[in-house]
Design a protein that fits this description.
By secondary structure, the protein is mostly beta strands. The protein has seven helices and 44 strands. β22 and β23 form a beta hairpin. α2 packs across α3 and α3 crosses α4. The chain starts with a strand and ends with a strand.
C-alpha cells in the first residue's frame, strides 16, 4: 500500500499550470499530513506558504506511476491556494486547505491573524526552594480581545541570568544558585518576563482558620459565650507584598491549610467565603452586590517554618458569612448521607441592614432576587432581627434549595404563620418540609460525638426545637416533636406537616422519607402537598395493612384523615343510606383504590317543602361539590336530572385579607370551599345527595383532593 503525505515546506513557488502532477497511481491511496516546522498561522497579509505533496509506499519508496493532485480552499477571502499548493494570506480568519487524489482527500486548517498580540505567562509558581530543583513554565499567545490564538506558536524561552536560572526550549527551569532573575517568553517578536526567585531557605506555612460562632437557645442568641469553629473547606490565598496571589489552597475539615515552599518575606493570608470545588461542595456567600467576603491577616515569614492562627471574631462583619457557609456545608453533608449525588452550586446573599427577609430564589427577578438564584438572608440591623446566626432559619431555606433540586416544590410562596391551620396545601407542605429539615439535621449531628461539635444550639435544648432569634430574645421557639394534638393540626398547617414527617422518621428512618421525597414527588402530576407525599409513600413502600395503619395513626394525630370513612360502603347503589334530617355526619374524601371518592346519602322529601343540604367544618384542604338528584335517580356519576348543585356556597371567600399578614391569601378554612343548596321539593319521594371533591381546580390549585367535611340536611 502507498501513502500520500502532505508536507508543509517553507519555500516560494509560482506557476501558471492548472494541474500539478506527481508520481503515483495507487490501488488504495492514503493522504496524511506530516507535521513540519512551517507555521499554520499567517501574521501578514500577502504572506505566502508552499504546501508540497510527497508520496511513498510502505517501504518509504516513491511509486513509479503518476497521480494528479487537486488543491482547494474553503475561504478564498482568508487564504487563497493555487494549483501547486501555494498559499496566500488574504484576510483575517480561518480557511481549510484540501488536497485530493484518486478519490481521497486530506485537509489542513490554516489561520490569518494580523492584529495585536500579547504573550501571557500561565505559570503561577515563581520560586524554587532548592538548588537543582526544576519547574516547568508555560505561556500562550493571546489576541487583542484576550482570546488565545487558534494556532499557538512555539514559545521561545530565555533566562536573563543563567548563573541563577536556566531554561530549555520546552520551558523547563532549573535552579542554579540563590537569587532573582527573569525568565522571558517570546513569540512573534513580543516578550513577557516572569520574575523567579531561587531561595534554598524556603519553608512551608501551615495554619488554622476559625470563626466565632454564637450559641442560641429559646432565650435568644448568647454573644458572650466564646465559641470558635473551624472555617472548613474555604479557599485561602497567599498574597505577595505587591498584591499578587502566589498560591491558593483550601482549609480541610479542621480548618487547617498549608502553603508550600514559601520564601521568607512579608505576606498576607486571605480567606474568602467560598468553598473549594474539590471538597465536593460549591457554596459561596456574597453581599447583595455579588461580592465575596474576605478576611486577611499579615504574616512575616522567617527562615523557619511558620504556623498561622487566624481567628475571625464577631467584631469583624465578615464573620457572619463564614457561619452561613458552614451551616450550608453541614446541610450538604447531611444530604450526602441520603444520596451520593453532588449537591448543586449554591450562592447566598447577605449583608447588614438587608430588611427584605430570608428566602430562597429559584431564578433572578428585579424585586427580591436581584443576584439570581440562591438564598437571601435577613438582617434588620444590630438591634433588630438577624438571621445570619440563626442556624435553624438557614437550614429551613436550605431545605427549600434541596427540594428545588432533588424533588419538586409547587409552593406559591406568600405569608404563612406557624399557627395558621388554613394554608394553601402547597405552601403548608413546602414550609413544613422547611421546618422539619433543621430537626433532621440537628438530630443527625447530635447522634455522633464528633459531629455534635458542629451544633450551635445551647446544651439541654432538644434538637427538635425550631428557633428564630432576634438578639437576646427568641421570636420562635417551638419543640415540634412535643406539640400537642389539638394545636398545629390539619394538612393545611406547616407545623403539622413537620410533625408528621418527624414521627415517620422515628418510625421508619430518614432514608424512608427521603426516598419518597426524591423518587416519587418529582413524577407526581398532582400539586405537591401532603396528599402527594401520602400517595408517594404508598407507591414507594407498598406497606402491608399493619404498616399502613401505623402511618394512618401518625397522620391522624394531626387530624389528617387519609382513610376511608366508616360510611364508605354507601357509595354503592344497593347500599345507599338515608340520613335523618338535622343529623350531622363527618366523611372523608378519600378512597383507597385511588378513584375519586363520591359519598352518597338519601333523605325523604315532601312536595312543597324547602330543604337545605350543606357541607361545613371542612379540614385539611377539603373542597366539596354536592348535587341533589330527584326521586328515582340515584346515578353514581352523572345525571341530567339534577335538582340543584353547588361547588362553593360563599363566592370569593377563598382568598381574603389576613390582618396578621397584611395581605390577602388563600384560606383553606372550615367554610370557604363549603357547598350548600336550598330547594323546594317538587315531588314526594327519596332524594339522593352526592358529595365529592370539586371537579374544577380551585384558584392556584391550592386546595386538596382529600380532606374531611361534615354534612347536614335540614328542613326549612
Amino acid at each position: 500500500m502507498f501513502g500520500l503525505l502532505l508536507a508543509l515546506m517553507a519555500c516560494q513557488h509560482s506557476s501558471n499550470d492548472s494541474v500539478a502532477q506527481t508520481d503515483a497511481s495507487l490501488s488504495s491511496p492514503v493522504i496524511k499530513i506530516i507535521p513540519s516546522e512551517a507555521p499554520l498561522l499567517f501574521r501578514q497579509l500577502g504572506a505566502q506558504q508552499q504546501l508540497n505533496v510527497q508520496m511513498t509506499d510502505e517501504q518509504g519508496e516513491p511509486p513509479a506511476s503518476l497521480s494528479v493532485f487537486q488543491w482547494s480552499t474553503s475561504n478564498k477571502a482568508v487564504i487563497d491556494v493555487n494549483h501547486e499548493g501555494l498559499l496566500t494570506a488574504m484576510g483575517d480568519g480561518r480557511a481549510v486547505i484540501s488536497v485530493s487524489a484518486n478519490g481521497f482527500t486530506e485537509t489542513v486548517d490554516m489561520f490569518v491573524y494580523t492584529g495585536a498580540i500579547n504573550v501571557s505567562v500561565l505559570t503561577a509558581i515563581d520560586y524554587l526552594r532548592q538548588i537543582g530543583s526544576q519547574s516547568r513554565v508555560s505561556a500562550q499567545v493571546n489576541m487583542a480581545n484576550g482570546e488565545p490564538l487558534a494556532i499557538q506558536p512555539k514559545i521561545q524561552w530565555q533566562s536573563e541570568n543563567t548563573d541563577i536560572l536556566t531554561v530549555d526550549e520546552s520551558g523547563l527551569v532549573s535552579a542554579v544558585a540563590d537569587g532573582s532573575t527573569s525568565i522571558v517568553a517570546t513569540a512573534y517578536g513580543v516578550s513577557t518576563p516572569l520574575t523567579m526567585i531561587v531561595n534554598s531557605s524556603a519553608v512551608n506555612v501551615t495554619g488554622v482558620i476559625r470563626y466565632q460562632d454564637r450559641e442560641y437557645s429559646n432565650q435568644g442568641s448568647n454573644r458572650s459565650k466564646q465559641i470558635f469553629k473551624s472555617v472548613r473547606f474555604a479557599l485561602v490565598d497567599l498574597v505577595s507584598k505587591a498584591g499578587r496571589i502566589l498560591q491558593t489552597v483550601s482549609t480541610d475539615n479542621s480548618g487547617r491549610f498549608v502553603f508550600t515552599s514559601v520564601v521568607p518575606d512579608r505576606y498576607t493570608v486571605r480567606v474568602i467565603s467560598k468553598t473549594d470545588d474539590q471538597s465536593g461542595y460549591s457554596f459561596e456567600v456574597n453581599d447583595l452586590s455579588g461580592n465575596l467576603y474576605a478576611v486577611t491577616q499579615a504574616i512575616d515569614i522567617t527562615t523557619s517554618a511558620a504556623d498561622v492562627l487566624m481567628d475571625i471574631d464577631d467584631e469583624n462583619t465578615a464573620v457572619a458569612a463564614f457561619n452561613i457557609l458552614d451551616v450550608f456545608l453541614i446541610g450538604g453533608e447531611f444530604v450526602n448521607t441520603l444520596i451520593s449525588d453532588r449537591i448543586p452550586a449554591l450562592a447566598a446573599y447577605w449583608q447588614p441592614n438587608n430588611s427584605r427577609g430570608t428566602y430562597f430564589c429559584t431564578n433572578k427577578d428585579r424585586a427580591y432576587c436581584q443576584q439570581g438564584a440562591g438564598i437571601y438572608i435577613y438582617n434588620e440591623g444590630i438591634f433588630g432581627d438577624t438571621d445570619e446566626f440563626d442556624d435553624d432559619v438557614l437550614w429551613h431555606e436550605f431545605g427549600h434549595f434541596v427540594a428545588a433540586h432533588f424533588s419538586k416544590d409547587d409552593s406559591p410562596g406568600g405569608c404563612h404563620l406557624l399557627s395558621s391551620n388554613d394554608l394553601d396545601l402547597r405552601l403548608s407542605w413546602s414550609e413544613g418540609w422547611g421546618d422539619f429539615f433543621p430537626m433532621a439535621i440537628k438530630s443527625w449531628l447530635a447522634a455522633d460525638e464528633q459531629r455534635s461539635q458542629l451544633l450551635s444550639v445551647a446544651e439541654g435544648i432538644p434538637s427538635t426545637t425550631y428557633i428564630d432569634t432576634a438578639g437576646n430574645r427568641s421570636l420562635i421557639a417551638i419543640d415540634i416533636a412535643a406539640v400537642g394534638n389539638t394545636t398545629y393540626i390539619y394538612a393545611s398547617n406547616e407545623i403539622a406537616v413537620a410533625k408528621i414527617l418527624w414521627d415517620i422518621v422515628q418510625e421508619k428512618g430518614m432514608q424512608a422519607v427521603w426516598d419518597v421525597f426524591y423518587h416519587q414527588l418529582p413524577s407526581i402530576s398532582t400539586p405537591i402537598n401532603l396528599e402527594a407525599f401520602w400517595d408517594g409513600w404508598l407507591a414507594q413502600h407498598n406497606p402491608n395493612l399493619l404498616a399502613q395503619r401505623a402511618m394512618e395513626n401518625i397522620f391522624q394525630h394531626r387530624q389528617v384523615f387519609y382513610t376511608e370513612d366508616r360510611y364508605e360502603f354507601d357509595n354503592e347503589v344497593s347500599n345507599i343510606r338515608k340520613i335523618g334530617l338535622g343529623r350531622e355526619e363527618t366523611h372523608t374524601l378519600y378512597q383507597a383504590d385511588g378513584v375519586p371518592d363520591v359519598d352518597i346519602l338519601a333523605f325523604d322529601g315532601f312536595q312543597g317543602v324547602s330543604y337545605t343540604v350543606e357541607t361545613f367544618n371542612l379540614r385539611s384542604g377539603a373542597d366539596t361539590y354536592l348535587k341533589v338528584l330527584p326521586p328515582g335517580d340515584n346515578n353514581l356519576t352523572m345525571s341530567t336530572t339534577v335538582v340543584m348543585d353547588n361547588d362553593d356556597q360563599l363566592e370569593n371567600a377563598y382568598r381574603t385579607f389576613d390582618a396578621l399578614c397584611g395581605e390577602s391569601r388563600v384560606k383553606n378554612n372550615a367554610s370557604a370551599l363549603s357547598s350548600k343548596v336550598t330547594f323546594v321539593a317538587n315531588s314526594t319521594g327519596t332524594y339522593t345527595v352526592h358529595i365529592s371533591s370539586t371537579p374544577d381546580p380551585e384558584p392556584y390549585l391550592s386546595a386538596g383532593r382529600y380532606g374531611d367535611y361534615t354534612i347536614k340536611i335540614s328542613r326549612q
